[in-house]
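Same chain as my last thread, 248 residues:
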Amino acid sequence: MNTANFDFSGSNILVTGGTAGIGNGIATAFASAGASVTITGTRSSAADYDDDLSAFAYSQCQIRDPESIDALAASLGELDILVNNAGGPYPDGDEYDPDGYIASVTQNMFGPMRLTMKCYDKLKSSNAPGGASVVTIVSMSAFRSAVFVPGYASSKMGLIALTMNLSRRWAADGIRVNAVAPGLIDTRMTHPAMNIPEVMNVEIGFHTPLGRAGTPQDCAGAVLFLCTDAASYITGTSIAVDGGYLTV
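reply #2:
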């Protein structure tokens, strides 16, 4: 069969925002491949979520709060892979309002950047085949205008620049730094739009040559590949998981 099987036995993974959606798909894929996975969420405990999160260790983290980020980083043991996934648009309302814009950039760029830097020593100490990995989830909004979410889009473009620069800065330390840019992915956050024909006719009918929405599992495959020794010569890049969106 034309399938890929991953083995992350013995690996220690942190996936921020892993309670649902793309983050949960990535965390589940790592756990299924034998890794020890810690996820973060905004609630006090994993029991506060309706979904079964028993396959993971859980840490509360408010990605807009520097003290919360620092506490998370300090609580970690060994770390081989960091997946920066937590975030989202409109954390404080209208992103054209300066305060709303700042809140979005704080959540979606400053938070992941701070966590990544705080994890440096742990990642540098990793003995993972192919080196330690940082994979940051960005967005098509980094490549195409996203008129309603300028702060979110700016953040994702900024994270691509951070990915390229950190990949150079940390290359000699055995840490590879990459990004994955999803297109339209069917999650709870996007699912309401899936029931609006006017939206889907444009997003799928015109913008997505493969003719379907993606799934969290589509994103997970790209993330896991980037963290294997098969990708040991890949750093500083962004992989689009977009059904062809960028070709249109």
